[in-house]
Write a structure and sequence with these properties.
mainly alpha; two-stranded antiparallel ribbon; 1 helix; 2 strands
């Protein structure tokens, strides 16, 4: 029968501590990644709203046109029947 001890060996304790540290780091990084994703999604929503507002303003000013984003030229869109 193996001898039972009431304490881990130094090597076992180091192994437990290092493994726990690695797990804690992973959980922390998952949390930080989640926060970053949340912030990106929030910013995406803001930019999409800005885009919609810009689209509305340009449509009011120039009518139903397509904009060439490279040179700013406008092409009338064909009206749907």
């Amino acid at each position: 029968m193996a001898k039972k001890s009431n304490k881990l060996s130094k090597e076992e304790l180091t192994n437990v501590q290092e493994t726990q540290k690695q797990l804690n780091n992973i959980v922390y990084n998952i949390g930080m990644s989640t926060v970053a994703i949340f912030n990106l999604l929030k910013n995406q929503g803001i930019i999409q709203q800005n885009w919609s507002d810009l689209e509305k303003d340009l449509t009011e000013k120039y009518g139903n046109v397509s904009v060439n984003v490279n040179d700013g030229s406008l092409t009338p869109n064909k009206e749907e029947e």
